[in-house]
Amino acid sequence: MLGPPVEEHGGNKWVMLAVGALLALIGYPFVMPPEKPNVTGAAILTAIVAPIIGWLWSVKVTLHQDGITYQSWFANKEMRWEDVDRFYFSSIRRSVNFIPIGTYYTFKLVDTLGQKISFGNQVERPGTLAEKLISLTYGPLIKKIAQAFDSGKEIDFGGIRVSRQNGLQVKKSRWGGLTHKFVVIPWNQVSSYDIQKGHFYVWRVDEKKTTGPALREVPNAFVLKGLLDALFRPKASA
After folding, report:
1. Per-residue confidence at 236, pLDDT binned at 50, 70, 90?
2. Cα(40)–Cα(31) distance, rounded to whole angstroms?
3. Which of 119, 152, 195, 238 is most solvent-facing, going by the fewest CB within 10 Å?
4. In this predicted model, what pLDDT tens digit does every residue of 122-149 receive, in sequence order?
5. Given a cut of 60, is residue 203 above it in pLDDT?
């Protein structure tokens, strides 16, 4: 059992409203034709919409000092921060005809046994939740990853691999994103790195433009950035 709850996030009411309105809009011409209301169709539409809204309403993510719980009609899971092995995160801003319509978040935590907790915008205040999850997973993960790195192991961050001996291997897109390959960047060739616009970029010395894997392909991306900060900042201040 986890300790007392620190923060709770229930179902996102705006998502419920949007989903309900969309399904009703799609189904309305079939259940309410001009000539005669379709009672059977209305019942079928209600039977489809109600469970979806009910599931969204049932979703709850609770943060504890020592872990996280996820609850819904179909799942009841918990995971301790110290057991988290990979934390995947992405946030993508969507727009239609250059008009912003919102930011879409995805979260996935995987523990050392391969068990998963996944959710996204169905949870209220996902932006605030993102900040909390990044903060709460960072400490245990950076400790484990730094120890593995110091022991000489290659650390796999999905689209980026880190080795004390060989530097970085970064997944780069080619031919307009149709193909990808890992490019080796030795430590002395790393100019800078950053998380920008949903990607993790690493620039070589004298390189102005580059490509980098999407954040959703880089588990523990913020821990990777912290590890690189620890490696390069002392050199910068020397």
Report:
1. very low
2. 8
3. 238
4. 899 999 999 999 999 999 999 999 999 9
5. yes
Average pLDDT, whole number, for the chain? 85
Please report whether residue 158 resides in a domain.
Answer: yes
Whether residues 43 and 160 fall in one domain: no
> What separation in angstroms does the CA of 186 have from each of 8, 164, 222, 231, 237?
44, 10, 21, 13, 20
Rg of the chain's alpha carbons, rounded to an integer?
A: 22
Q: What is the CATH number of the domain that holds 36?
A: 2.30.29.30
73-97 tens-digit pLDDT? 888 999 999 999 999 999 987 766 6
Q: Are residues 9 and 121 in the same domain?
A: yes
Amino acid at 142: I
Q: Are residues 233 and 167 in the same domain?
A: yes
DSSP line for 193-234: EEEETTEEEEEETT-------BGGGSTTHHHHHHHHHHHHHH
What pLDDT digit, counting tens, does each position of 11-32 carry? 877 676 666 666 666 655 655 5
Q: Are residues 81 and 130 in the same domain?
A: yes
Alpha-carbon distance of 86 to 216, in angstroms, equals 11
Q: What are phi and psi of 165, to 5 degrees?
A: -80, -40
Is 145 a member of any domain?
no
Distances (CA, A) of 146 to 1, 30, 163, 230, 231: 28, 59, 11, 10, 11
Using CA atoms, how far residue 231 sits from 137, 154, 202, in Å, is 20, 15, 14
At residue 53, the pLDDT reads 65
Q: Who's near 4: CB < 8 A, 6+ residues apart?
A: 64, 65
